[in-house]
Amino acid sequence: MEVGSRSFGGGAIWWRLDWEVRFGGGSIWRCDLVEVASGLSGEFLAGPFSGSGCAANTKSFSLIEEILEDQKQYKDITDEGFTVRFICLYGKAGMFDHAHKLFDEMPELNCKRTVLSYNALLGTCVNSKNFDKVDGFFRELPGKLSIKPDVVSYNTVIKAFCEMGSLDSALSLLDEMEKEGLRPNLITFNILLDAFYRKLRFLDGDKLWV
One digit per residue, pLDDT tens: the chain, 210 residues? Predict the structure, then answer.
């Protein structure tokens, strides 16, 4: 993975070359905007905001917002997969409100919302540690948007419950999945086993093997 820089909005920008984003002038660069900082201030973030030892500051957040907002002028924003990447980037940067705003704006951007962007929003809640918002979105949005949650949706909510210490609520989703005709996968059980064993609830964890 390469690291590079480019002038944008009056300052030098550092990025990890990870995926495509268009900058002013139409050039396409591959980047991960979670690792971005102003060269004018001499600051450089050693890792994603969600990682350890990385202090996010107002200037960095503003810079990320400036870059991502700039992308809305390109037709790619009408592609759900393209927009989902931005939602995820906001989540990794801990900018949940921005991710939620972009999700709400998708119809205005002529971008269809499916279970893909729905799952991205749920994942953003977890990545930004807004665990308390997950259940509300999980219950309310499918009916409003005519979306049917899939295994990824359930796994994300289970992860959120486990992070909050609500293991019984997480476990109850297994029965709900089966009622909805969904089959828990390896990720589902790995999340639950890790949570139960970390809380020393070995008997409950062992029951998952049966």
Answer: 334 344 444 443 433 434 444 434 443 333 444 444 333 233 333 333 333 334 445 556 677 677 767 777 777 778 899 899 889 988 888 889 999 999 999 999 999 999 999 999 999 999 999 999 999 999 999 999 999 999 999 999 999 999 999 999 999 999 899 999 999 999 999 999 999 999 888 888 888 886
- Which DSSP helix (H) or strand (E) runs through 43? none
* Separation between Cα atoms, residue 142 and residue 190, nearest integer Å: 26
Helix (H/G/I), strand (E/B), else coil: 82: helix
* DSSP per-residue string spanning 130-193: -HHHHHHHHHHHHHHHT----HHHHHHHHHHHHHHT-HHHHHHHHHHHHHTT----HHHHHHHH
Q: Is the pTM of this model over 0.70?
A: yes
**CA pseudo-torsion sign 130, 132, 134, 136:** negative
- Give the residue extent of every domain in the chain: 3-149
Secondary structure class of 47 (helix, strand, coil)? coil
